[in-house]
């Protein structure tokens, strides 16, 4: 085997390893530097440089040098015509002394001053990616055709490395742009949802802030149920939007300062279906938002509306909104009744869990409430929504623990949580 071929194989092995390193560590500049050293070392060349040619710039950008004088600089002007001429150069190796590199004439003087003898363009898919500039051999012997083959092969490898790096950088930039766009869109979506919720609540003057509170209670329950952050956010949105269908119900019925009659009640009961119709055409970044609006008045025992679904037919998200909605209805003043005490709310939950409310959801709600009363939560979310005097830790904790034990007598952790 020719000594040059052996050197070439060895060098390519090292370059392949480096290629892997680029992918792994992204240390692109180190790869270029080491590639240049390998190339110079393989043929015992005194000096050289790897210059990148940025796609939209008319100036080379030096990536690595060896043995060159800093006095002359190594970046050169390179216009579009020159770029094209270099890509099309038939030989692929331009000899500076013989003026083969004539179409690179802006830089010839500088190249000669640096004792550069060869310019080898690097092109991928017909696009100039860079240049390798090489001085003479340490032995002062001329380059043989064999040497030039080795040079071209190794330069091609460096060119592919630069190209790959550019692609990776573009992909990374694209991914970053997409990520930003995604977060911008999510923020716009959330703002729109909040605006929607505010519009719903403005229409219903007696339940100001109801949608927002239902969103927050739903979020608390989902988090306590161990859901992921994405699903928890989705539940907050479902809570904000659950009553969006009320936008199509007459304002007088929504704001009636008395108990409404059967006809008015059936008009009001259109709102879950109307909400589904409003929300379905929208692409939501969270699953099942329209269904949670549609089924937030369904009951486990099948006596709810609009479809009279039973337990397993009702999406768990809708069951969460049901409890959040009812809890807020019980704990806020309405035109025809004042809000219930916490003890009364517990009685209602006890009576209706299993028939109206899902026990799993009620338990999660109670656990979250207990954690706040135990001081385990830094943010007092319930207190913020209920007012600071509504709950009393000493009085209410036993009520919650008792209900939790009734719903799941084997639940040892409750006593630990409630202690
Ligand atoms: Fe509703």
Description:
With 419 residues, the chain is α+β, with helices and mostly antiparallel strands. It has two domains: 3-174, GAF domain (Beta-Lactamase); 204-418, Orthogonal Bundle (Hypothetical protein af1432). The chain is 56% helix and 7% strand. The protein has 17 helices and five strands. The chain has helices at 3-25, 28-43, 80-87, 108-113, 145-203, 210-224, 229-241, 251-254, 262-268, 271-279, 289-294, 316-330, 342-352, 359-373, 381-386, 393-407, 412-418, and strands spanning 48-52, 61-66, 94-95, 118-124, 127-134. A five-stranded antiparallel sheet has the order 2-1-5-4-3. Helix 6 packs across helix 12 (316-330). The protein is elongated. It binds fe (ii) ion. Fe (ii) ion (FE2) is lined by residues 242-243, 271, 296-297, 325. Fe (ii) ion is lined by residues 242-243, 271, 296-297, 325.
Give a quick rundown of the structure.
The chain is an alpha+beta fold and 419 residues long. The protein contains 17 helices and five strands. The chain folds into two domains: 3-174, GAF domain (Beta-Lactamase), CATH 3.30.450.40; 204-418, Hypothetical protein af1432, CATH 1.10.3210.
Radius of gyration, CA atoms, in whole angstroms: 36 Å
Largest sheet: 5 strands, antiparallel
The sequence of SSEs as H and E is HHEEHEHEEHHHHHHHHHHHHH
Q: How far apart are the first and last residues' alpha carbons, in Å?
A: 82 Å
Question: What is the CATH domain class of the largest domain?
Answer: Mainly Alpha
Structural class by helix and strand composition: alpha+beta
CATH architecture of the largest domain: Orthogonal Bundle
Oligomer: single chain
**Mean pLDDT value:** 85
Superfamily at the CATH H level of the largest domain? Answer: Hypothetical protein af1432
Question: Can you tell me the CATH topology of the largest domain?
Answer: Hypothetical protein af1432
Number of domains: 2
Q: Show unreliable segments.
A: 18-25
The helix content, as a percent range, equals: 55-70%
Task: Please state the overall shape, judged from the principal axes of the Cα atoms.
Answer: elongated
Work out the strand percent. Answer: 5-15%
